[in-house]
């Protein structure tokens, strides 16, 4: 990763920010009279994780100009993410996307109900993006969720990728396929358009096999992506084992094309899952931090695994762990033998 110290931001992301409503504890959506509210969204979660670890990030998003938009804006600021590029929608039909999330407990799986159609970001216009934004960041990140939301977000996301790339930024992209937003054929066709511009690719083994119809081992598929798209320098795939809704194990595989080397480590085993939402985004933030801060794929893998494992233990969509906590967790994971049970 080329170091560009003159840039104001290390990372700028583009995506929808949403309101999440959850029944307290392990309550049911259809039964609960009370819902806890959280702000979230894949690109906000990633920007937040990178900022908490010590770098400078911002998000391009579009919010309704009302109390719900103010709530999300305040959460963005609380997460140390710049609100310089928030666009406010003052139309009478402006709305914030909502989703309801119900925690699972074995054998009952978690449940998600979306209410996000026609949210303000789905009507975003290219002229709402400031013309001077492209030279301000070392890296730009977005995901397949943003490509899937609407024709407007898809067109703009592709333009942003091309414009940030032309201005010298690295491009990071998470396939992050959601079947409830678009079909595999449309996703594959669209994502193939942007892969020639991508430097850092996050993709699951399932998406490699199903969406891109690749075969062989995960290592074989990583190498094949780099052969097909020479611009890709880093590919990362998370490897989560769900023992039950409350117990997961997690590690990942990171491939560095430059070194032709794969990085992985022993899983974080039997993670005590409080809330898994946003943990995949936390993984992306840790990997991107490791690349942006250290230009080191091994450190990227370590930070990615630690931030993901830790986010599973935190309620809400957004991560809440700083550099010192994650560094301590990495050290503990790599240490054999007895460890202190308390931070003090």
Overview of this protein structure:
- The chain is of the alpha/beta class and about 350 residues long.
- About 35% of the residues lie in helices and about 25% in strands.
- The chain has 10 helices and 15 strands.
- It has helices at about 40-50, 65-80, 145-150, 150-165, 185-195, 205-210, 220-230, 280-295, 295-310, 325-335, and strands at about 10-15, 20, 35-40, 55-65, 80, 85-90, 100, 110-115, 135-145, 170-175, 200, 235-245, 245-255, 260-265, 270.
- Helix 1 crosses helix 8 (about 280-295), helix 8 (about 280-295) packs antiparallel against helix 9 and helix 9 packs across helix 10 (about 325-335).
Q: What is this structure, in a nutshell?
A:
The protein is an alpha/beta fold. The chain has helices at 42-52, 67-78, 144-149, 151-166, 184-194, 205-210, 218-228, 279-294, 297-311, 323-334, and strands spanning 9-14, 18-22, 36-40, 57-64, 81-82, 86-89, 98-102, 111-115, 137-143, 170-174, 200-202, 234-244, 247-256, 261-263, 268-272.
């Amino acid at each position: 990763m080329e170091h560009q110290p003159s840039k104001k931001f290390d990372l700028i992301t583009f995506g929808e920010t949403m309101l999440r409503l959850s029944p307290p504890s392990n309550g049911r959506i259809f039964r609960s009279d009370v819902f806890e509210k959280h702000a979230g969204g894949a690109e906000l979660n990633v920007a937040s994780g990178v900022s908490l670890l010590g770098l400078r990030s911002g998000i391009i998003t579009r919010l309704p100009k009302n109390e719900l938009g103010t709530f999300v804006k305040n959460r963005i600021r609380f997460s140390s993410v710049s609100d310089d590029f928030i666009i406010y929608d003052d139309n009478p039909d402006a709305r914030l996307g909502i989703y309801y999330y119900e925690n699972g407990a074995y054998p009952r799986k978690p449940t998600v109900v979306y209410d996000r159609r026609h949210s303000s970001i789905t009507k975003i216009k290219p002229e709402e993006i400031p013309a001077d934004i492209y030279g301000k960041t070392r890296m730009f990140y977005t995901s397949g969720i943003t490509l899937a939301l609407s024709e407007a977000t898809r067109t703009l996301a592709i333009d942003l990728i091309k414009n940030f790339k032309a201005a010298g930024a690295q491009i990071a992209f998470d396939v992050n396929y959601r079947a409830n937003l678009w079909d595999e054929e449309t996703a594959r066709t669209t994502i193939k358009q942007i892969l020639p511009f991508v430097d850092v690719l996050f993709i699951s083994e399932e998406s490699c096999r199903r969406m891109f119809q690749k075969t062989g081992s995960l290592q074989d598929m990583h190498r094949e992506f780099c052969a097909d798209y020479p611009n890709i320098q880093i590919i990362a795939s998370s490897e989560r084992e769900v023992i039950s809704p409350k117990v997961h194990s997690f590690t990942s595989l990171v491939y560095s094309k430059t070194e032709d080397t794969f990085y992985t480590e022993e899983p974080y085993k039997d993670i005590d899952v409080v809330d898994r939402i946003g943990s995949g985004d936390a993984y992306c933030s840790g990997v991107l931090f490791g690349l942006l801060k250290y230009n080191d794929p091994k450190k990227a893998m370590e930070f990615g695994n630690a931030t993901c494992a830790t986010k599973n233990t935190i309620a809400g969509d957004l991560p809440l762990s700083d550099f010192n906590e994650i560094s301590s967790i990495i050290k503990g994971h790599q240490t054999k033998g007895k460890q202190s049970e308390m931070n003090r």
